[in-house]
Amino acid sequence: MSIETVTPGTSLDAGPLTLIHAPDAVPGWWRSAVIYQVYPRSFRDFNGDGIGDLAGITEELPHLADLGVDAVWLSPFYRSPQRDAGYDVSDYCDVDPIFGTLGDFDVMMAESHRLGLRVIVDLVPNHCSDQHAAFQAALAAPAGSPEREMFIFRDGTGPGGHEPPNNWQSHFGGPAWTRVAGPDGQPDQWYLHLFDSSQPDFNWDNPAVHAEFERVLRFWLDRGVSGFRVDVAHALVKAPGLPAWGGRADGGSSDGFPGHEAPMFGQPAVHDIYRYWRRILDEYGPDRILCAEASVDLHRLAHWVRPDEMHQAFNFPYLHAGLDLYRLRSVVTDSLTVLDGVGAPSTWVLSNHDVVRHATRFGYNGLGPRDGDGIGPADPQPDHDLGRRRAAAASLFMLGLPGAAYLYQGEELGLPDGVDIPEHQRQDPTFARTGGERLGRDGCRVPLPWRAADKHLALVPETPPGCRFRRRSRPWRGTSRPLRRRRTSRCTGTSFGSAAT
């Protein structure tokens, strides 16, 4: 084990200055894993109600095992009003009835382990649903009460407190503050929500919030999960005093990532939370992991995966690099250099439930849709054939890189985004909060076509008739450990696959 001291002011200067090099001394399955993201509501519908469910996931686990992936990441399946596709959680320790029951979850876990698959679950610690019992208690309690201290309530400004406490904007559009009525029915304080008004932010300065999430972590660890993907990991702690911020609503700077000065993202104290969580996971053994969704630039990414914090952090600079050869080479080279400095692997990703699928993005030769926006029928359309070919090459390149890789459901088929979603069927709060100016992320979340006859809003009808890709799949990962060569699955006949190998 070697020790390196970083000079203050360098790219790795963030908190503790001692970095430990031990990439080989701490082996772990997660260092070179392929992890498959399942978005439950659109993965597989078992009971025929039109919504994917846990039983449907269980039914198709053999397909994922045949692909050769190491683990499954489940997007939220918790009890929720579904105002933001389950990222508005009303009970972190129960399954939403639209997906099944805790019993269904346990059956899925047992089948996953039988097939040699690990399961990682989504965790949403920045905010909850306004229907969560804790927030309902806060609404019924007076200002300054312990119930309100679970969240970020503040008095308004201006005459009568009619103006928000500061000028922060919601990531989904509009103000990041909503005023509530007090127990007497009169206008009262405002609460902070960096996202939708139905998603109040927790107050992570309150030890009671820490205790609640320790309970949640242990609940799912005791049920056998192998770890957590932490949603909006950079946003939990806000700067003292909640200073005004005139930048982008998401804290972003011109390069697309939150600026170092943004008061709502990347505060130093957030790392103390994850150091404590890491100690909790380590109690359960060395194979339990944390993966950060941290929207930070590449040189700050290493701060999240130091030896006593997260195991993985999504490499979003890689996702944004596109097909520009020089930019891609720079991101890959810098990623390996920066992350090796803390003994961590890079965690590569090309698509997920928040961005236009890369089979669609790569169908443009110029600028495509911006982050968080979809494509409508009136927008310039990509070249779908070109996009699929480029996506195949990009996926194979990614899977050959050293480190871990995350795949989004349908990526093995080269699926494009849905572009013809009627306005009345759009569910992303971005669409509603911007008055339709931004379409949001519904296009990348449409249901998977398990058979050629199944409807997929963006399906290009080239899948061989009757082909269920579970039965004709080939592994993502081969046997060459140095490069971890992996192959995509394919259907026989006219190829709709990500690559025909």
TrEMBL record:
It comes from the Bacteria. InterPro entries: GH, GH13_cat_dom, O16G_dom_2. Residues 470-501 are annotated as: Disordered. Signal peptide: none annotated. Residues 490-501 have a biased composition (Low complexity). Belongs to the glycosyl hydrolase 13 family. This is Alpha-glucosidase AglA.
